[in-house]
Amino acid sequence: MIIIMIVLFYFLLIRPQKKQRQQQEARVAALVKGDKVVTIGGMHGIVHHVSKETVTLKLSEGVFVPFNKVAIASTASKSEKLEKKGEPESKPEGKETEK
After folding, report:
1. What end-to-end distance do the CA atoms of the chain give, in Å?
2. In 3-state terms, what secondary structure has residue 29?
């Protein structure tokens, strides 16, 4: 019974967290200049420079802030941005006015 609980614990908790951590590490390792990122503190910026352990983000015109790579929470690469630009914008559904 204890062995079954340990196996369930592994498949329900440890394995999914390990996969998420590996995916996050892969996203951070693949950062390039121009990628949009969000830090764990909620700062939105564009990658300006990537070094071995830090990433310099451009937060606004003339404002560059260095962050450790582990502080990057989520990323959106250039290719994802280009794919989104190619998609037609959906019109908000609601009342249409007739003239």
Report:
1. 72
2. helix
In a domain, 72, yes or no: yes
Number of Cβ within 10 Å of residue 49's Cβ equals 12
- What is the domain count for the chain? 1
31 lies in some domain: yes
Q: pTM (2 decimals)?
A: 0.64
**Within a domain: residue 94?**
no
Tokens of 65: 């802030």
In the chain, pLDDT over 90 holds for what percent of residues?
A: 55
Chain-centroid distance, C-alpha 62 = 23
Mean pLDDT value across residues 13-31: 91
Measured distance CA(38)–CA(32) in Å, rounded? 14
